[in-house]
Amino acid sequence: MRSTHVNILGAGQCGTLLATMLARKAMTVSLFERNTDPRGEFAAAGRSINLALSSRGINGLRQAGVLERVGPLLVPMRGRLVHEIDGSTEFLPYGQRDEEQIYSASRGELNKLLLDAADDLDNVEIHFGHALTGYDRAARHARVLDIEADNDYEIEASPIIAADGAGSVMRNALHESGIVGANEILLAHGYKELVIPSGPDGAFQLEPHALHIWPRGEFMLIALPNPGGDFTLTLFMPNEGKVSFASLTTEQAATEFMDKYFADVAPLITDPARSLVENPLGLLGTVRCQHWHDRGDVLLLGDAAHAIVPFHGQGMNLAFEDCVVLDRILDGSDAGWDEVFRQYEDEQHKNANAIADMALENYVEMRDTVRDPKFALRKELSFELERRLPDRFIPRYSMVMFHAEIPYSVAQQRGAVQETLLEEFTNDAETLAQVDIDAAAAAATRQLEPVATI
Ligand SMILES: Cc1cc2nc3c(=O)[nH]c(=O)nc-3n(C[C@H](O)[C@H](O)[C@H](O)COP(=O)(O)OP(=O)(O)OC[C@H]3O[C@@H](n4cnc5c(N)ncnc54)[C@H](O)[C@@H]3O)c2cc1C
Description:
Blueprint: E1 5-9, H1 13-23, E2 28-33, E3 50-53, H2 55-63, H3 67-70, E4 75-77, E5 79-83, E6 89-93, E7 102-106, H4 107-119, E8 124-128, E9 130-136, E10 141-146, E11 151-156, E12 160-162, H5 169-176, E13 182-196, E14 211-215, E15 220-225, E16 231-238, H6 251-261, H7 272-278, E17 282-289, E18 293-294, E19 298-300, H8 303-306, H9 315-332, H10 337-367, H11 373-388, H12 396-402, H13 408-426, H14 437-447
Parallel strand pairs: 1-2, 1-12, 2-8, 5-14, 12-19
Antiparallel strand pairs: 3-7, 4-7, 5-6, 9-10, 10-11, 13-16, 13-17, 14-15, 15-16, 18-19
Helix pairs in contact: 1-4, 1-9, 2-9, 6-7, 9-10, 10-13, 11-13, 11-14, 13-14
């Protein structure tokens, strides 16, 4: 019999959603969070960014019974609005069906709502201000520090699910014991956040139903809408080099940079130069582990297991998918935790690796390729092939964002076949009229099995 009490470390998005899912199947959950309660008076200031939510995340919220409560936090985004350096714009839809849109959500508000949902359940107890400090593998217990009381105590690994984020203390402890084989690669690019406030009467100052991108080759600015009419902007660029965060240390340099590359949007931003100089620089990286669990004692989940760069907007969506997969395996068998964790890793490991790769590739697409006229042509052709062969040809972006039933690893494999095909048939064409669409469709039919047979 597997135990029906679970200790979860980290009340971020992943730990909190999992707590709700497990409690709904009559398990008892103790949730330990290093920070103070973000809903309280002494809330710690966290990352303010908003996040793009798509089908895998929506699935997780639905499965935990909280999707309806999340609705008011969401602003739909139907495509990318690309802002060229000369001020011209082009809208590139994400998909071709009405429901093919993604949603902007405030990280802070979403976390609070997920905490409320977990707190509503009698069988979840949440301990804020309690931090994991270490793990004793031989004794099968973790050490937790009650920060305010300065009191150290033990919790049993029977089991512990560690959702303690990208800098996971548990992952480091398991790595040092030779269990998980973690590998962390920092990107040479980082990010800073800026804000466009709402206009008079809470009006949006840019088109609200789009993810705005200012692609500039080696760097880019993006903007996501918030329900209150403001936008959160994120500048991604190299940390070092001629045009880099290291070169923007004075307000004069930052003003010149904004005027040169983002003249159309700079006047809308609150204190752009000062914000660029003073706001903290966020680091980005990819964490891959060979394994995610230690026997039936400990499992790493969410960013703790597989932090990825944010360029496909999938880190949280993947973390929510982790919860869905684990929940399904628990429903489908009475096996012990060891076997449950093994099955979970077997299924989800290749998917996390696939989206980690695709997220890195998407950075180049967003900051650079999106400006290439061939990119728009290939997108047009991919939509046309999807119309003709809806069960075979689904653009890779759509598979990742709108088709939670297609595993990331399958999206990656099919996406590679499709990309070769798109390149081949658009090589000598400048418009869709010049493409031999019948031949492209015939090639797609030969090379791609129907999705339903996967
Ligand atoms: C700039 C940026 C933009 C992003 N945009 C998107 C997006 O658009 N869409 C998307 O899907 N994803 C996005 N992500 C990724 C997303 O933020 C993460 O994948 C997601 O938050 C992971 O959730 P988590 O619960 O695993 O980790 P976290 O949200 O980091 O939660 C971990 C929790 O554990 C707690 N904790 C840490 N250490 C300890 C300890 N020792 N003891 C106890 N508690 C501890 C932390 O306080 C925190 O509450 C973005 C990330 C960044 C950096």
